[in-house]
Design a protein that fits this description.
Length: 91
């Protein structure tokens, strides 16, 4: 029975071991830079009187900084687009 469960468990864990593309990390960091500078917690946001970004955006930015772009990229892309930003080129 245990032998039958092992392949199923490995499939569930596969995303955790997926290789991260250096290009994805670089793109994610560019998105995080834009988010942090204009929407996140920054001196500029404080001066403008904006609330300092969403928790969702802050988490995504932190994920980029930690080299975990898979979940962060779609969040940052959506937040930036919804706020009128043009996304940087990917690649």
């Amino acid at each position: 029975m245990r032998a039958a469960l092992l392949p199923a468990l490995m499939l569930l864990a596969a995303p955790a071991f997926a290789q991260v593309s250096p290009g994805d990390v670089a793109y994610c960091n560019r998105l995080a830079d834009l988010y942090d500078r204009y929407l996140g917690r920054s001196e500029i946001a404080s001066v403008r009187g904006t609330p300092g970004g969403s928790l969702e955006g802050q988490v995504a930015s932190a994920q980029c900084r930690q080299g975990q772009p898979a979940g962060a990229i779609p969040v940052l892309e959506r937040l930036l687009r919804n706020n009128g930003f043009t996304l940087p080129p990917r690649g």
